[in-house]
Design brief:
Aminopeptidase; alpha+beta; 9 strands
């Protein structure tokens, strides 16, 4: 059984939280927008971070979310990046947020497949309700997508015979009551020099054009002449009603 705590109540767990292994590919750690959140998460967003411990006290999962300003608008195409930029700007301006977005759920690699991600999602939804939000939004990364060239708009609509999404992570969200809203076509944008991309991926990046990167959800684009490459990741916006609704 998990013990799930809010980071604001358990600041003593912050080191164990950061030290917990995860399975993110290296290139995913270099979206510059992420620094606006993770660089300030302890001081600004501790009420929006949940940490799960097993019965032995070991940290086995965590989840992160951010309050932001949506203003009644449609969910933005630059999903993950937009939520973080808006949330950081709201803190600077002192603007009251009117929405909350999930940022990520992390499960220790050796504990994956045990249903912990679903438990963290439920806890995140409950925490959103506790903080006064009627809805939890989530720019979901369907990481079982293996055909990098397939458009996310097609993949996100794939269903099994029972009508649930074919993608396991989308399926967890839908089973939990989430509703797929739209594709966030440019949810994360990661750019770098060719040397940086070689370091991040181990790939040569030696020709201009699309590059297929393992664990990416779309091709990166490489420009050898100008020494840069960029990866634009699509995610899937999902809406969850909370207990406050």
């Amino acid at each position: 059984m998990l013990t799930i705590s809010v980071l604001a109540d358990r600041p003593d767990l912050v080191t164990a939280m950061w030290d917990m292994p995860n399975s993110w590919p290296e290139f995913m750690r270099h979206d510059p927008t992420g620094a606006l959140y993770y660089g300030n998460v302890v001081s600004q967003f501790a009420d929006y971070v949940l940490i799960a411990q097993d019965p032995d006290g070991a940290v086995v999962a965590s989840s992160f979310s951010i309050p932001f300003v949506l203003g009644g608008a449609e969910l933005p195409p630059d999903g993950w990046d937009a939520a973080i930029r808006s949330g950081a700007q709201a803190r600077i301006d002192g603007t009251a947020p009117d929405a909350i977005s999930a940022i990520e759920i992390v499960v220790r690699p050796d504990r994956q497949g045990e249903g912990l991600s679903g438990q963290m999602l439920a806890a995140m939804r409950e925490n959103a309700a506790r903080l006064g939000f009627a809805e939890l939004l989530a720019p979901v990364r369907p990481n079982a997508k293996t055909d990098i060239a397939e458009p996310m708009a097609a993949y996100a609509l794939r269903v099994r015979e029972d009508g649930l999404p074919a993608d396991p992570w989308l399926r967890v969200h839908v089973r939990a009551g989430g509703v797929i809203d739209k594709v966030a076509t440019r949810s994360m944008v990661i750019s770098g020099t060719l040397r940086e991309w070689r370091d991040w991926t181990g790939l040569p990046f030696d020709h201009s054009g699309p590059v297929l990167i393992p664990k990416a959800l779309a091709p990166a684009w490489c420009d050898v002449e100008h020494d840069w490459a960029v990866y634009v990741e699509p995610n899937v916006w999902i809406r969850h009603r909370t207990e406050r609704a």
